[in-house]
Amino acid sequence: MGCAGSSRAKGDEPIKKITKPKPWKHSEPITEEQLKRMRDEFWDTAPHYGGRKEIWEALQAAAEADITLAQAIIDSAGIIVQKPDLTVCYDERGAKYELPKYVLSAPTNLTRDS
Length: 114
Known about the structure:
Blueprint: E1 30-31, H1 32-45, H2 53-64, H3 67-77, E2 80-81, E3 88-90, E4 96-98, E5 110-111
Parallel strand pairs: 1-5
Antiparallel strand pairs: 2-3, 3-4
């Protein structure tokens, strides 16, 4: 417990509103199919890194939804957002959840499947 006069350091406050991730570029051009495979693999293995399965499911639903629905999902699941683009979140028990950008948005160098 902290002192009555103590306060959190700037940057430690949870984020209330989420935002779309900033544009990013993959190390090499990838196809939509490759991106889908990367996402599927991440979501299939994510619960094995710790945290609660229902929080991972809520994060997946939020990552795949539009920003308004994503905000509602995050709020209703009690997820604490540390970075507004959802790359770092916590559950109410303090477990940390890190999401790679590729599950949140497409890279700028995405190519169409041939």
